[in-house]
Specification:
Number of strands: 0
Radius of gyration: 25 Å
Oligomer: single chain
Shape: flat
Helix content: 55-70%
Structural class: mainly alpha
Strand content: under 5%
Length: 306
Amino acid sequence: MIFAASLLLQFKMLKEKWKRAWAWINQVEDYSPDVFVKSQWQLGETSTIYLIYRWMLAGTFVCGLFASVLDLGRDPVPGAAARAAPAPSHDIQHYFKWPIYLTNWGYTACTVQAIMATAHVTKHYARMRINPGAGMEKMKTSYKLYWVIHSVAVICSVVITTIYWSAVYRPGKTDSIDVVNLTVHVFNSVLMVLDLWVVAHPFKLFHFYWAFILGAVYSVFSYIYFLAGGTNRRGNPFIYLILNWRRPVNALLAISCTVLFEALVTVIAWMMFIVRRRLANLFHRKMAARRMANSGQATDQGPRIV
């Protein structure tokens, strides 16, 4: 009886701590709809620099996506690698197999969120130029959708880059280090982490489950693809060697480790968001103080007599 009462008390205390933690997280992630069309660092209602940045980022991702799909800038596997594994044939099946790779799922998410962000910022910029007195933006379904895709792109890009270079890439046996490889396995995460520091909207901690859902869907897809006799671009009966379903225990272990790493990346990204917001608050307070000081100096000087 005493043990049950103690257990119940511990449960209530844990529940109260969870409520306080949840309230603090919600407070940290507090936002208004206009943060989806602004940079954390801009000073006015609109920013031409941020608009240019959004168009450049979207253009970079779109060009990278086309280069990946069409294998533009892709070097053949050289020397010993060509003898160790047959070079991929560039027939129609080669291009049809582009969607089977998780890398390309992640890069597509990066591209989609970049296009959506550019559309939102451009529309807001034009709206404020036409009607400077327009009120605050209203929360839209497209903002929520962009927010989710942005979070997934941040998490997945870092996870894909890390796993590729640590567990998939094998010097002399896999793809050579060319423009396309660097674009989808390096620049994807670099640009998404950069964007995480630039945007004004929060990085929501519990958006992690969307990345988890994407990973689960891909895992199921890879298993069905394996059962259907599908092969990768080199004719191997697996998409990635670490996800070889002929060895299901190893495949499930790789999936489990990936999920744990996704959780770690999510927490790190969320902490980066907190640091970004606090640094930005310091920056804006400093700029506000400077404007007040300049305004005070102008008032002390009084009107000029000509």
